[in-house]
């Protein structure tokens, strides 16, 4: 081992990565990819950093409200150049009341993406959870707009970088209708994404791993590897259905769903 390698091995750790990214979030300053500086950033270390950051969020009083899937659709995977989904944490400070504008003062470069979300009726624990079992644990389905915000300049990151950064968590707003899963065909649930009254993208629920319940099962099974369950009452964002679009100041972003109603958010 050279001196340089030894220094960098001592310098980098999951805890340090969690600190760096929480600081970037708190000060709304972006930085370059961590994996470029530390190639040893593996997926398990990235998830460890995510959990350390969650412990810090809880220590300052935040309450876990659920989880968010990342990069579950081909649109998002292509846009970000990453070919695998991942899971991250949602807390109460990320839940934006309907009607509130995008809180730009808290965000670096917000992007909006429409999502199908679940509200869990029962605890769901992997491994080995199937999509059918996952859906059976869901109480209600709701539309959502997630406002993501990467701590990496230009949203340039690897899967490991994004996982360490809590899957670019920002804020999320949920829609007006809480439907029972058995009353919908979620693969066929369509969404129109509009900016300032113009349709910019469309997708159906099938964009999300073939069915959003597949994403939920993936989340349960992935979380189980670290000893976590998905708890009753939690919200699960199943991942952006379309490309995420930059939210400019003064813009009006709307997601119109077939059965889950419409959500509009002002760019702030
Ligand atoms: C990372 C993942 C974001 C999703 O739904 O794909 C995400 C990113 O694209 O910045 O929440
Ligand atoms: Mg998302």
TrEMBL record:
Transmembrane segments: none annotated. Residues 84-263 form the Fumarylacetoacetase-like C-terminal domain. It holds the Pfam family FAA_hydrolase. The keyword Lyase applies. It comes from Rhodococcus indonesiensis. SUPFAM superfamilies: FAH. This is Fumarylacetoacetate hydrolase family protein. Keywords: Hydrolase, Lyase. InterPro entries: Fumarylacetoacetase-like_C, Fumarylacetoacetase_C_sf, Hydratase-Decarb/MhpD_sf. One of its GO terms (molecular function) is hydrolase activity.
């Amino acid at each position: 081992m050279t001196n340089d390698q030894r220094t960098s091995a001592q310098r980098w750790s999951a805890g340090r990565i969690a600190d760096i990214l929480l600081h970037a979030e708190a000060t709304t300053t972006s930085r370059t990819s961590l994996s470029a500086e530390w190639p040893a950033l593996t997926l398990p270390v990235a998830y460890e950093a995510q959990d350390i950051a969650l412990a810090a969020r809880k220590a300052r009083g935040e309450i876990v409200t659920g989880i968010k899937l990342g990069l579950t659709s081909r649109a998002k995977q292509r846009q970000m150049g990453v070919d695998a989904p991942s899971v991250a944490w949602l807390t109460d400070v990320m839940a934006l009341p309907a009607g509130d504008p995008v809180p730009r003062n808290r965000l670096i470069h917000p992007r909006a993406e429409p999502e199908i979300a679940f509200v869990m009726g029962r605890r769901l624990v992997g491994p080995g959870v199937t999509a059918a079992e996952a859906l059976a644990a869901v109480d209600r389905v709701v539309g959502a707009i997630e406002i993501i915000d990467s701590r990496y300049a230009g949203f340039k990151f690897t899967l490991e970088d994004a996982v360490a950064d809590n899957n670019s968590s920002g804020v999320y707003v949920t829609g007006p209708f809480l439907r029972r899963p058995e009353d919908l065909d979620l693969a066929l649930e369509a969404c129109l994404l509009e900016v300032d009254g113009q349709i910019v993208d469309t997708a159906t629920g099938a964009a999300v791993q073939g069915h959003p319940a597949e994403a939920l099962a993936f989340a349960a099974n992935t979380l189980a590897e670290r000893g976590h369950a998905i708890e009753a009452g939690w919200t699960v964002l199943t991942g952006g259905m379309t490309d995420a679009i930059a939210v400019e100041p003064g813009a009006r972003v709307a997601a119109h769903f077939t059965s889950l109603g419409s959500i509009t958010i002002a760019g702030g």
